[in-house]
Amino acid sequence: MSFKRFLSILSTRNKEFLRDRSSLGWNILMPVFIVAGFAFAFSGDIGKKFKVAVISQATATTQSKQFLEFKYIDFYSVEKMPAAIARAITKIQRHQVDMLINAEKQQYWINTESPNGYLLEKILSGLNHNNFEKQTVSGKQIRYLDWVIPGILSMNMMFSALFGVGFVIVRYRKNGMLKRLKATPITAFEYLSAQIVSRMILIMAVTTFVFYGTNLFVDFVMYGSHFNLFLVFALGALSMICLSLIIAARVSSEETAGGLLNLVSWPMMFLSGVWFSLEGAAPAMQLIAEFLPLTHVTAAARAIMIDGAGLIDISYHLLVLTAQSIIFLFFGSWFFKWD
């Protein structure tokens, strides 16, 4: 590999993107508009459906079953493991879950500062004559905007990665640019690696600008490390860029490429937990989400920002993104053709 040829391609691609004012503006302004829209839409008090996490739902006592049969309460199961219970309690502290109940031992946890938790406790005590053991926690409420912002940033990275690399390579192939590059000493590895690094630099620069720029007006919750968050976004961007290489490896039609990229991006946007939590969703939906890079980027970023998670806590997501990047890059390079 020639480092000089690599830098030449990298510089050319960066200049091409920066000179495209409309594309650059769209990458910066779209997430800003989305964040501003959510900040406005969720600035007031909005009624929520009660959400209750349940331990040992299958072995619930008779009194617990009476409560679990209540309408207009969203019940979802939690594993009977200390780590899973600790995560559920953290969600109560953050006001993401209104109550945690152990249906077998007749225990419940609520946040002393949660109006929804207070009302659920009154319902529970009225049904069961105070036969449940009460545990209390406290913590600052997490706005929906705080919860959704990691997904918005991840989603913007996804579109920039998929269309910024995949669509560009297809366009180059269609207008004969790749065929001319093939006649030069440039290798496929040098060309693809330059495309990856160029898009990585631009994605991370735009994401950093959007994050800190919008934070000045919205003041996001950020309990974790900024470096860890940057690392997650960088690894996520790499994974999705490599995914775009598979789509662009042999396609020569911009229309076909656009259709394939939309076929990949839109399901990811709705099945990766960007807009709503996947807890309590159908098992098949959760299984599909596990194979999507956007799921792991969003979950890891959300854990860092809201829960203050460290790298060890999100190691599963980091390992999945690393494995996906390697697999996508391998097949993208293998299938790649110049013309």
Count of the domains: 2
The count of strands amounts to 5
Q: Which structural class do the helices and strands define?
A: alpha/beta
Q: What percent of residues adopt helix (DSSP H or I)? A: 55-70%
The span between the termini is 21 Å
SSE succession: HHEHEHEEHEHHHHHHHH
Mean pLDDT: 80
Which residue ranges are poorly predicted, with pLDDT under 50 across at least 5 consecutive positions? Answer: none
Helix count, per DSSP? Answer: 13
Strand content: 5-15%
Biggest sheet character: 5 strands, mixed
> Over all CA atoms, what is the radius of gyration?
24 Å
List the helices and strands and how they pair.
Layout: H1 3-19, H2 21-41, E1 50-55, H3 62-68, E2 73-78, H4 82-93, E3 99-102, E4 107-111, H5 115-128, E5 133-137, H6 144-174, H7 177-182, H8 188-218, H9 226-248, H10 254-271, H11 283-290, H12 293-307, H13 315-335
Parallel strand pairs: 1-2, 1-3, 4-5
Antiparallel strand pairs: 3-4
Helix pairs in contact: 1-8, 2-6, 2-8, 3-5, 6-8, 6-9, 6-10, 6-12, 8-9, 9-12, 9-13, 12-13
Summed up, what is this model?
The protein is α/β, with parallel strands linked by helices and 339 residues long.
